[in-house]
Amino acid sequence: MPVRYVVAVVLTVAITGMLFAGIDHVDGQNSRNEMETEVSALDSAAVSLMEDEELPPPGQAGPKRFVTLTFPDGSLGYEAVTHFEITRVNEGNSRIEYQLESGGTHQRFVSAPIVDTDGDSQFELDSTGDGVEVVLTLEPDSNGDPVVYIQIA
Fold it and tell me: What range defines the domain where residue 31 resides?
């Protein structure tokens, strides 16, 4: 009789452990899927500026795109995004990198040179809360080459 209870407890603990491991995996996958959607929107807007728009004449504002970024916040079914950055890696490309609460870092490359409004090759966000609207603007850099400047709206 007591052996049955021990076996029942051991099986319950084992099944519960597997359930929690599965939930953690699903949380991470949900967050990665959500972030892929956000990164795709940013990528699409930046590439659209580079491919479809022309540099403005001197003294005029460049064409703009507005994108609202909403990162997973760690609510039920999602891991929180703890860090997000965009780094210009060369003349025509940028890397978008984000880190999840579990420590996993993910990156994607964008075919557009994205820089911070101060000309810094790196733009960072630590959280978006309910959403952060960013403005992407096509302007010439100091060499006259087209770049996409990003700033919080």
Answer: 2-152
